[in-house]
Design a protein that fits this description.
Largest sheet: 7 strands, mixed
Distance between the termini: 37 Å
Radius of gyration: 14 Å
Number of strands: 11
Strand content: over 45%
């Protein structure tokens, strides 16, 4: 299983960006996908999950209302839609996939696969 992330770039504050994370390979192994971000000098921050089978999603309060997660079954791709971006959203965004089945979100997951990360820079 490989995760191919894309969609980052430079965006002005208040604008939107959609990140993609395509699952390539044995997609049947994936049960849950998580999105994370890491700003320079900061710890990695969890920004949401999607149950790969049910498409249920969870986003923490820090981004809920501005970010949404979805997936395209036919393309084996998950999306992180980010609206109303702020300079403090500047970070490398990563997607990760776990094989362990989950029954509810948020789920504590030991992710088995990680994408390469994509940089989102929000200018003020």
């Amino acid at each position: 299983v490989q995760l191919q992330a894309s969609g980052g770039g430079l965006v002005q504050a208040g604008h939107s960006v959609r990140l993609s994370c395509e699952v390539v390979g044995q997609t049947f192994r994936v049960s849950v996908m998580g999105w994370f971000r890491q700003a320079p000098g900061e710890e990695r921050e969890f920004v949401g999950q999607i149950n790969w089978r049910s498409s249920d999603t969870y986003l923490p309060a820090s981004v809920k209302g501005r970010f949404t997660i979805s997936r395209d079954n036919a393309k084996n791709t998950a999306f992180l839609q980010m609206n109303g971006l702020k300079p403090e959203d500047t970070a490398v965004y990563l997607c990760a996939a776990g094989e362990t089945a989950v029954t509810g979100l948020p789920a504590r997951v030991n992710y088995d696969y990680w994408g390469q990360g994509t940089l989102v820079t929000v200018s003020s």
